[in-house]
Amino acid sequence: MGGALSQGALAGRRVLDLSRVLAGPWAGQLLADLGADVVKVERPGAGDDTRAWGPPWLKDGQGEPTTESAYYLSANRNKRSVTIDMGTPQGQALLREMAASADILIENFKVGGLAQYGLDYASLKALNPRLIYCSITGFGQTGPYAPRAGYDFLIQGMGGLMSLTGRPDGAAGEGPMKVGVALTDVMTGLHAAVGILAALAHRERTGEGQHIDLSLLDVQVATLANQAASYLVGGAVPRRLGNAHPSIVPYQDFPTANGYMIIAVGNDGQFEKLCATLGRPEWSRDERFVTNPQRVRNREALVALIHGVTVTRSTEAWIAAMEAAGVPCGPINRLDQVFADPQVQARGMRIEMAHPLAGQVPLVANPIKLSASPVRYDLPPPMLGEHTEEVLQCWLGLGPEAFAELRDKKVV
């Protein structure tokens, strides 16, 4: 491998990424950012499904659309793309040989789907007992729903998230609502990466690989966090509250003279500061609002009072006043405002990478700031099959003549 691929906390780790769409590729991208050599295996001529999920498309130097979708670009940085037809015996043999030298394999096929190719965990474990094999499915390897396909939107509904998201019953626009990002997929990708790192640590102690069984539904249920705990402890089914918090008041959006802002008061001291900033210090001494449990019980009355004041000044004026007083608050930004925010810019959350079609491709940075082994940005999201010959030579020692034969037979 070249020097660019030898840097980072996971330098020297080989990842065979057979996953598509978002959850698996998100985990692969995170490992790649941390220095692993991640090889993305795709179908010849088609590739990852998300390559076709546009518009928008990345534009070339003349402003014309390319074939690279924004969706695909979001989850495939720092990888190398290899096209192999796993439906052919030779393609299966190539993948088994690659798995034999890999540290990690990520896949999101249906349960049992890779067994017909000899690429299931049991088959590959026999070739490489040190292999860490991460399976991502909608419902896991066991249970009555195991054979079903799983999609983020479906899981947000089945896993309870949508029952907690949206305007409350009786309010304008009432009803359950999905989150505006495929959050279950992203959280599953993060849990996959954590599980893989834990398996690497286990392997360092024991020399043994293992199978990771990760389910979108499991992840969604697990990340209900305090809402799930409230139900299990208290027995009451949480209800939709729009932008309000079930256990903290005031902790929601409020209208201003020119829009909206968020007030996020987390304790009684902050509430006292809020009341003073609003010009209503007496509210902090009102027996209905003195403590947070009292404010929760008298939510509607307090929220109505605050509404009556916040509409008298602009969002900008209120935020300036509250920040000066130490009251947690902020705007509700559009994405153009997010990337123009001085804090977001100072943290370097937008990056540019060289791209063979576009010249430059804008991407969102990895948020992990490591002092000794920083995240690397070496390779833009690869074009379909861009690195096939390079990787097969690097991983398997395949020569030009052997590669040409595979190409002529449409195996790669």
Tell me what you see in this structure.
Helices cover 37% and strands 16% of the residues. The chain starts with 13 loop residues before the first strand and ends with a helix. The protein is built from 17 helices and 13 strands. β3 and β4 form a beta hairpin. With 412 residues, it is of the alpha/beta class.
Overview features:
412 residues; alpha/beta; Rossmann fold; formyl-coa transferase, domain 3; 2 domains; six-stranded parallel β-sheet; 17 helices
Element-level helix/strand string: EHEEEHEHEHEHHHEHHEEHHHHEHHEEHH
CATH homology superfamily name of the largest domain: Crotonobetainyl-coa:carnitine coa-transferase, domain 1
Biggest β-sheet strands, sense, barrel: 6 strands, parallel
Assess the beta-strand content as a share of residues: 15-25%
Q: How many β-strands, per DSSP? A: 13
Question: Which CATH first-tier class of the largest domain would you pick?
Answer: Alpha Beta
Mean pLDDT: 96
Radius of gyration: 25 Å
Structural class: alpha/beta
Please give the CATH architecture of the largest domain.
3-Layer(aba) Sandwich
Oligomer: single chain
Q: Per the principal axes of the C-alpha atoms, what is the gross shape?
A: elongated
CATH fold assignment of the largest domain: Rossmann fold
Protein name: CoA transferase
GO molecular function, one term: transferase activity
Keywords: Transferase
Pfam family, one: CoA_transf_3
